[in-house]
UniProtKB/TrEMBL annotation:
This is Cytochrome B. The keyword Transmembrane applies. It is a multi-pass membrane protein. PANTHER family: BLL0597 PROTEIN, NI/FE-HYDROGENASE 1 B-TYPE CYTOCHROME SUBUNIT.
């Protein structure tokens, strides 16, 4: 039976910042904010900026699983995912094949939602019915968010590993009294 020890893998700070930033924007704009308000528009721009920052990070300074190259799914990724889920193997660092694919779909849907929101406020966008595109994008984004959350719950349960902790700040270990440096 796989161990239930804490998962040592954590995403780097910028990945976590952009993930939770985009999540907060989506919550705010999809469920808390009224469409057409100035905040709605600025949060959409913020989402585009956060995804742009994450893409730039993944192309330049990111290491390991946070690099964009590591997020390109392959057939082998999907095979490994099927085996890992079937055998209830502990979650590997990074994303499975479907997780890699979901990252790209979510990024594209957020960008399409924000972009169509901006475009509907232009004369051309208004004439071309960009408000319909924006609405379709919001529905598709909400469906993908629901799928993302369900996949996290299912994979965490199936592999006996709390995947959410990978996106949370690391807890610092308490240093015992005898390990602390003396105070002078």
């Amino acid at each position: 039976m796989p161990s239930r020890k804490a998962d040592p893998f954590h995403w780097d700070g910028l990945v976590r910042l952009t993930h939770w930033g985009v999540a907060a924007v989506c919550i705010g704009n999809l469920w808390l904010n009224e469409a057409g308000e100035e905040w709605h528009e600025w949060l959409g721009y913020g989402a585009m900026a956060l995804i742009g920052l994450r893409l730039l990070w993944g192309l330049t300074l990111a290491r390991g699983h946070a690099r964009l190259r590591a997020l390109i799914p392959s057939r082998d990724d999907f095979r490994q995912q099927a085996v890992a889920l079937r055998e209830r193997a502990p979650a590997a660092p990074g994303h499975h094949g479907s997780g890699k694919l979901a990252v790209w779909v979510l990024w594209l849907l957020v960008l399409a939602t924000a972009g169509s929101g901006w475009f509907q406020n232009t004369e051309t966008g208004f004439e071309l019915g960009a408000d319909d595109w924006h609405e379709w994008c919001t529905w598709a984004l909400q469906a993908m968010i629901a799928l993302h959350l369900c996949a996290i719950v299912y994979t965490s349960w199936r592999q006996r590993s709390n995947l959410v902790t990978r996106m949370l700040p690391r807890r610092r270990r308490q240093v015992s009294q005898h390990q602390q440096e003396p105070h002078f």
